[in-house]
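INTERNAL AUDIT FORM
Audit reference: QA-55
Scope: verify that the stored structure record matches its stored sequence.
Auditor: D.O.
Record contents follow.
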Amino acid sequence: MESTSPDEMAWRDAAVTSLLYHKKLADGAIAQVDDKALHRALDEHTNSIAVVMQHVAGNLRSRWTDFLTSDGEKADRDRDSEFTDQGAGRAELLERWNAGWQALVGSLEALTPADVSRTVLIRGEPHGVPLAVERSLAHTCYHVGQIVLLARHWAGAKWETLTIPRGGSKAHNQAVWSGDDYAKRAGR
């Protein structure tokens, strides 16, 4: 077994941390809407939260199941059906959603330094492992943004912010850095 430095897989750990942070945002947004709103699209040209969840779940399951040994586009994936609301209830949507995320995180955490130089296929196109990870990070975070935006819209006045609230940056920074430290960091 080869020896590795603690930093050797820091990029992978950073990707996992970022992805899990974005999952937390999506989960927090999803929790703020009722079941009916999960299936409501803004108009005929947009996807509902449920449809975006179906797509992300399908994408993650396909890409990250047997990540190093099979094409990321699995033969049993029906991508087009992911963009049709299948009418699944919240529990079923969350089960699929969480299974996709588990495939992602499990595969990422299993990567070794030797895996970094490997090539994987996504729809027959070769990708280095770091590029495949970054591609998934970008794709997934893009859709998390859609989920949060839709949930924010449907929650309306009941929305509870998932990050620093509007007008709350100064108070947040002062709390994190304590008053005097914040003023010094900000050059005041």
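Auditor finding: record pair retrieved intact. Residues 10-185 form a domain with the Four Helix Bundle (Hemerythrin (Met), subunit A) fold (CATH 1.20.120.450).
Action required: none
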